[in-house]
Specification:
Blueprint: H1 3-13, H2 18-38, H3 42-54, H4 59-66, H5 71-86, H6 93-103, H7 115-132, H8 136-145, H9 150-159
């Protein structure tokens, strides 16, 4: 299944919420750049891109149900939602399971043991930092603690002139 088809369906799924749409497009863009520069194999790159597009699928529900989009709520609610969303595509169960895992852990910064997971965390942080105007101090601190890929380090340094 082409990433563009998943992107188009996720845009429609977002029902005109431009903030959410802009965010997942930004995360996808950063994830795509980092993954390609890091030389991910095509299967892992595909999983990463699908996870980047769908990582915040639970945000509208969380806003309604909890009054916020705290990470733990997104992770818990996102797993079944992304599985249901991806059912309509011709995607292997293995790929859906990995995407669901990533969606269900994209705010968990421990036991990050695979490149798709690491890159998703990096891309989501970068998007949030850009969108929310994080301070240079915050970005530098995160650069030292969370950003681990060579390409992620270069990208965040370029984005924030570090």
């Amino acid at each position: 299944m082409a990433v563009a088809e998943i992107m188009a369906k996720m845009i429609a799924y977002s029902k005109g919420n431009i903030h959410d749409i802009d965010h997942f497009i930004r995360v996808w863009t950063y994830a795509k750049i980092i993954g390609e520069l890091e030389g991910l194999n095509p299967k892992t790159q595909y999983i990463l891109e699908v996870a980047a597009i769908t990582h915040d699928i639970a945000c509208p529900l969380c806003r309604e149900k909890y009054g916020n989009t705290h990470g733990k709520h997104q992770e818990e609610e996102g797993i079944p939602m992304v599985r249901a969303f991806l059912e309509s595509f011709d995607i292997s169960k293995e790929t859906v399971a990995r995407v669901a895992y990533l969606v269900g852990h994209h705010h968990t910064l421990t036991n990050v043991n695979e490149m798709d997971y690491q890159i998703l965390i990096e891309a989501d942080y970068m998007a949030n930092a850009v969108e929310n105007g994080y301070s240079k101090h915050n970005v530098e601190n995160t650069l030292n603690k969370i950003i681990k890929t060579k390409s992620g380090i270069q990208l965040i340094r370029s984005l924030f002139c570090l």
